[in-house]
């Protein structure tokens, strides 16, 4: 299988690091020939530009920002190959051809070294037609062996789950930081990171339901009430607080149901 890439960002580099010794590399296309030459000097493959490239054979990864995937796919010259993009949100039909897939790594590639260190744990979300899924599964197996196949109509919900798990905690960390900072705590980022790391590890080792501790889990309703007032004073509204407490009550119910299951 020959692999070609469009785009020279961190995710392209991640795939190249993981796959360069297993597969033949074709072309690595960039909008800029210098960037293409630079990356092929590191990983192998042949340089070319998006505007001016020969007919591509094999698998072509389009790893560009989501809003450009469709227009890039339109101008690519591909001979009987399989097109793959990496968006978690868009389905592969945006590629407007047969032999297509989306292969979405559930990870943030802002830090390439970290991604490579954790590559065995990365779960890929795969969607596509028969040929596309076949290729995407092979690539996922070559990197971590962990993947889920998603029906195209479920891609938006799938992406939402990833946004909730990876972006929403940052919003909560920010609220927490505002409270710590208002008290003059030094280096609140470190404190919050340690707290959150413990929770994240418990989720992986046990489950979401079992990772929950704190006043809602214990049923300390007086603490919940008093802290609601403090929250409202700091942020001007207790809307988020109330919503989250309701979710935490649901989590607690889920945990009790799990306990009952274990007792049986
Ligand atoms: N970054 C992540 O953590 C992550 C995680 C999971 C999935 N993804 C998916 O990976 C894909 C790339 O996202 P990204 O955030 O990594 O993108 P990015 O780093 O902003 O861009 C990737 C590459 O796309 C090329 N590019 C930029 N604008 C372009 C344009 N207008 N036309 C054609 N090519 C263009 C550039 O390469 P040249 O300058 O060489 O042309 C750039 O290095 C997206 O589908 C995204 O959903 C990203």
Element layout with pairings:
Elements: E1 2-6, H1 10-19, E2 24-30, H2 33-43, E3 46-49, E4 56-62, H3 66-75, E5 78-85, E6 100-105, H4 112-117, E7 124-128, H5 130-143, E8 147-149, H6 155-166, H7 168-182, H8 188-205, H9 208-211, H10 215-218, H11 221-235, H12 239-263
Parallel strand pairs: 1-2, 1-4, 2-3, 4-5, 5-6, 7-8
Antiparallel strand pairs: 6-7
Bound molecules: NADP nicotinamide-adenine-dinucleotide phosphate (NAP).
Supply database-style keywords.
264 residues; Rossmann fold; 8-stranded mixed β-sheet; 55% helix; elongated
Strand content: 15-25%
Give helix % range. Answer: 40-55%
CATH architecture of the largest domain: 3-Layer(aba) Sandwich
Largest sheet: 8 strands, mixed
- Number of helices in the DSSP assignment: 12
Strand line-up across the major sheet: 3-2-1-4-5-6-7-8
Distance between the termini: 51 Å
Mean pLDDT: 96
For CATH, the homologous superfamily of the largest domain is named as NAD(P)-binding Rossmann-like Domain
- Domain count: the total is 2
CATH class of the largest domain: Alpha Beta
Oligomer: single chain
According to CATH, the fold-level topology of the largest domain is Rossmann fold
Radius of gyration: 23 Å
**Alpha-beta classification:** alpha/beta
SSE order in H/E notation? EHEHEEHEEHEHEHHHHHHH
Instruction: Give the names of the bound compounds.
Output: NADP nicotinamide-adenine-dinucleotide phosphate
